[in-house]
Amino acid sequence: MNKVFKALADPTRRRVLELLRQRPMAAGELSDHFAFSKPTMSAHFAVLKEADLVEAHKDGKQVIYQLKLSVLEDALFGFAKTFNLGGESLADGPAPSATRSQEVKS
Question: What is the CATH number of the domain that holds 13?
């Protein structure tokens, strides 16, 4: 999960993921959206691949990147679960934020 959050920490990589939500794209096509050199973009792609957020395959001379949305969803779900966000457990009672908001309303 640390690799995922390291990858998500950079706004350029988050933008790449946003673009890939639309459809798979070639490395050059993605790079056209940024004012960075190709080696810089390659480094960003490598971080995303290392985090398993994208997969890449060759199509002739092009490298096509595709978003692995399930990996992103799993990481975000795990993060939310760690902090008991997004719902309450029947065994644990109400989430602390729910208790605080009720106290404020009273």
Answer: 1.10.10.10
